[in-house]
Structures are given as structure tokens and as C-alpha cells.
Amino acid sequence: MNPLIQLRDLAVHFPVKTGFLSGSSGVIKAVDGVTLEIPRGQTLGLVGESGCGKSTLGRAVVGLTEPTSGTILIDGKPLTRDRRVQMIFQDPSASLNPRMTIGATIAEPIGLNGLRQGRAAIKARMHELLDLVGLPQSAAHRYPHEFSGGQRQRVGIARALACEPDIIVCDEAVSALDVSIQAQIVALLEDLQVRLGLTYLFIAHDLGSLKHISHRVAVMYLGKVVEVAPKAELFANPRHAYTRALLSAIPVPDPSIERQRQRIILNDDIPSPANPPSGCRFHTRCPVAIDLCRSEVPNWQEVSPGHTSACRRAEDLVKLMPDPVTSAAYM
Questions:
Q1: Is-contact 70 10, C-beta < 8 A?
Q2: What are the Cα distances from residue 33, in Å, to 36, 247, 298?
């Protein structure tokens, strides 16, 4: 299947300033050489701890952050700042203008991009989008503060759809919502994907929130992607030490099994992206690291069809680390 979007060796570095008038004294390597692709109509889940660079990568895909190097291709052509890629932000309270009605918020991108001509056509399209995300047409005359968090996120989805995109970056789109509302929003996104043929980059900080919506999952650590696999394969057979640690943090809905599980506790905090460790960037926290992990960058290896890992000990992890107990039976 041909990819709709491809990232090739993408890097986003930010200069570190030592003072108001001083020059740069270094760089923050927020994203540092990421290569990924997403087929049309599928969802790639991108997961990692806070500060690993996943939101910066998402903003680069949308065009809100300028890449330092690398290439972003859509249908084989370099990305330009066009309406084909849109974003759903984490906090709908902060991303919606409190002084604009819901109707104006959704209608504005329709008019700016010339997708409909005339006020009546723009208004009709706005009402169509409200229906599409499960909001009444009467919502058009109200303001964001009059809605719940889940309803505001539906407005954010409608605004993203107003530009008729092919790709939507969902940046922690459900993490600020109650668990029951998260399920509703995920179900809405899945339904819209089928109906409209959308492609998603779904960013989250825990694997649990990705297990229903993703087709494939990429695990990111300190600016680099360390493992990519089909969702079921990743949950059943994680082949990077960091992935196994993330999976061990997901509760299992069986009390007898949950009581017997051995959590994988990582030592220390995540290192600074301004001064990342040598070799494998995870080695400072990895419970099974060896000397080569500290001195040499691991090569990517395909451990099974479509499943790649940048872990030198990928073949031995089943024997070396506790079972995170996250098989497809719990998905």
C-alpha cells in the first residue's frame, strides 16, 4: 500500500539562548532523524513520554514548526502549508477563540480557503459539519464556555474538517477528557475516518489510549523513534526495552493477573534533549543495557514482517525482562 504521507530523516532543533543579547550556545534536539510513513486511510499512533518530541513532530507535519532538516512528502510531493493537513489540539478550551461563536469558528476556515462561495453556502456547510460531529445546529450561536470539554473537542474536530483535509494530526486529542468521553471521541474519529477516508497521526503519551484507534504504532524516545509495528504485534510482542516498560504501565482488567504482574520501573528521569546520551539514547534508564548500547547507535532491524526495532537486545527481551501482559485479549 502506497503511503499518503512520508517523513524522511526529519529533524527539528531549537537553539538554546544563554541571554537576551547572546547567541546560541547549543540546540535542543526535539526531533532528531525520524523516518515514518502512513498509508491512506490508516492511523499511525505515536507514543512516548512528555518531552520526547512527539508534539513537535506533529506540529512540523502540520506546518506550524519549521523542520531543521529532512523531508515531509504527501503523495510523493514536498509538503507545503496547505489545507490538506489539519490538527486537533489537546486542550479545546485553549484552542478555541472565546470571543467567537461556534458557528463563526467553523465557518471561518471554509471562507478563508474558498471552499464555499456565498454566506448561505458557507452557513449550510457549517451546519453540515455540526451534524457530522454530533452537535445540534443551535450550537452555532453559542460560545465555547457554554459547552463541556467533550463538546468543545467536537467543535475542534469540526473546525479541522472544515478545510476538507486528507490528514489530521490528533495531538493528545483525548488526554484532557474524562475516560467515558475519551471513548466517545475515539469512536467519532473512527467513524469519520471510515466515512471520509481520513488518515490520522494520533499522538498520545500512553499506549492504552492508542490500542483501539491505531493500525500501527510508533514508539518515540528522546527525539527518536525506537520501534514501529502493527498494533496487535506491538502489544503482543514488544521488541524494545522502552516499549515493554510503557506496556507494563497499562492496567490489566483482570484483578488476579494484575496482582501478579511485575512492573518495569525505569531509573532516573528522561535525559535532556540538549545533551542526549551517546549510543542508544535509552541506555541510561534501560535495565538490560550492555556496553555496546552505551557506545554505539543501534541499527534498525526487522524482527518480523512490518515490525522494526532499534534495540540491540531485541531478540533477548522475552528472557531478560518481565512479561508486560498486554496480549490482544486485553485490547
A1: yes
A2: 10, 24, 14
pLDDT at 19 over 70: no
Three-class SS of residue 85?
A: strand
**How far, in Å, CA of 144 to CA of 127, rounded?**
16
Question: Model confidence over 26-55: pLDDT tens digits?
Answer: 899 999 999 999 999 999 999 999 889 999
Q: What is the mean pLDDT of the chain?
A: 90
One-letter amino acid of 306: G
User: Cell 473546525, residue?
Assistant: 159
| Residue 67 confidence (pLDDT) | 95
CA distance 57 to 40: 19
- Cβ(263)–Cβ(248) below 8 Å: yes
CA angle 3, 4, 10 (to 5 degrees): 80
Distances (CA, A) of 211 to 97, 129, 249: 32, 27, 14
Would you state the cell numbers that stand for residue 263, as one nine-digit string? Answer: 512492573
Higher pLDDT, 114 or 250: 114
Residue burial 139-151, b: 16+ Cβ < 10 Å; e: rest: bbebbbeebeebb
What's the rounded Cα separation, in Å, for the pair 296 and 302? 18
The enclosing H or E element of 170 equals strand 167-171
CA distance 308 to 312: 12
What is the C-alpha to C-alpha distance for residues 193 and 211, in angstroms, rounded to an integer?
A: 16
The side-by-side arrangement of strands in the sheet containing 69-74 is 24-39, 3-17, 69-74, 77-78
What is the pTM for the complete model shown? Answer: 0.92
Residues 281 and 31: their CA atoms lie apart, in Å, by 13
- Regarding the domain delimited by 3-84+165-330, which CATH topology (the fold level of the hierarchy) does it fall under? Rossmann fold (3.40.50)
pLDDT of residue 329: 39
> What values do phi and psi take at 12, rounded to 5?
-130, 110
